[in-house]
Amino acid sequence: MSVLVNKDSKIIVQGFTGSEGTFHAGQMIEYGSNVVGGVTPGKGGQLHLDKPVFNTVADAVKEVGADTSIIFVPPAFAADAIMEAAEGGIKVIICITEGIPTADMVKVKAYIEHKDCRLIGPNCPGVITPGEAKVGIMPGFVFKKGKVGIVSKSGTLTYEAADQVVRRGLGITTAIGIGGDPIIGTTTKEAVQLLMNDPETEAIVMIGEIGGQLEADAARWIKADGNRKPVVGFIAGQTAPAGRTMGHAGAIVGGKDDTAQAKMKILAENGIHVVESPAEIGQTVLDVLS
């Protein structure tokens, strides 16, 4: 089992012929992901990376049965690209784009609420099910198949956690980079729920950061759900000053519950194994599973 993406996912790339889309689509194809084509308006009918190019997402869904999309579209047009994917019938929409205006994402969130789809991101590294599908910008060689799921707001910490887990012989079921913007599609709690319900996932690594309530919501749900699987948690930004955005647009301390220390306390109170440093993630996962 896996969540969100697997070897059967039929993936299209929106912004396929641009420099970012071309580079990362090439990496995804090389990894073995089932990329069935891409979308660049006005370039329909051409071949790119030996894959068909379509003018619209709807065309790609109709012609090649696409069900998963990854978006490499500039910030000014990315919200439209997400809505086009949702309207076109894509089930899993993964948006890599950073810098989408918050006002645009408010519209996107309202638009996709009643659509049969799931949005991951924006401003995220994507999703990977090792050995099956890499739909994102993560270094595929770091990830090996195993029994630990990862949910993370941070791209680089996703890779770091995966590397540590793999080095301890455990491996990854699916790693989900949810993105660090103030408004995202799939929340920490929703991503954790997917992994809790995946029979192959035996433990979960949950990486958060300062700002917002996503980690606290997830922690309370995990406890209410009966702590079915061990969860190892890390919160980035322990030395961040209040009122200053750190890294991600959503990483800003707005109140006393937004600090790393407050979040770590909430996680611990809800039965999560909290680590002080990302260097402790791998060993802690090994400890809780043995």
TrEMBL record:
Binding residues for substrate: 159
SMART domains xrefs: CoA_binding
Alphabetized UniProt keyword annotations: Ligase, Nucleotide-binding, Tricarboxylic acid cycle
Keyword set includes Manganese: no
Annotated residues for binding of CoA: 17-20, 43, 96-98
Gene Ontology molecular-function annotations: succinate-CoA ligase (ADP-forming) activity
EC number assigned by the record: 6.2.1.5
Active site positions: 248
Reaction catalysis annotation: GTP + succinate + CoA = succinyl-CoA + GDP + phosphate; succinate + ATP + CoA = succinyl-CoA + ADP + phosphate
Pathway: Carbohydrate metabolism; tricarboxylic acid cycle; succinate from succinyl-CoA (ligase route): step 1/1
InterPro entries the record matches: Cit_synth/succinyl-CoA_lig_AS, Citrt_syn/SCS-alpha_CS, CoA-bd, CoA_lig_alpha, NAD(P)-bd_dom_sf, SUCC_ACL_C, Succinyl-CoA_synth-like
Top EC class of this enzyme: ligase
Pfam families for the chain: CoA_binding, Ligase_CoA
UniProt KW S-adenosyl-L-methionine keyword: no
Domain CoA-binding: 4-100
Entry superkingdom: Bacteria
Coiled-coil spans in chain: none
Free-text function comment from the UniProt entry: Succinyl-CoA synthetase functions in the citric acid cycle (TCA), coupling the hydrolysis of succinyl-CoA to the synthesis of either ATP or GTP and thus represents the only step of substrate-level phosphorylation in the TCA. The alpha subunit of the enzyme binds the substrates coenzyme A and phosphate, while succinate binding and nucleotide specificity is provided by the beta subunit.
Subunit architecture: Heterotetramer of two alpha and two beta subunits.
NCBIfam families, per the entry: PRK05678.1, sucCoAalpha
Family: Belongs to the succinate/malate CoA ligase alpha subunit family.
Protein name in UniProt: Succinate--CoA ligase [ADP-forming] subunit alpha
Organism, scientific name: Lutimonas vermicola
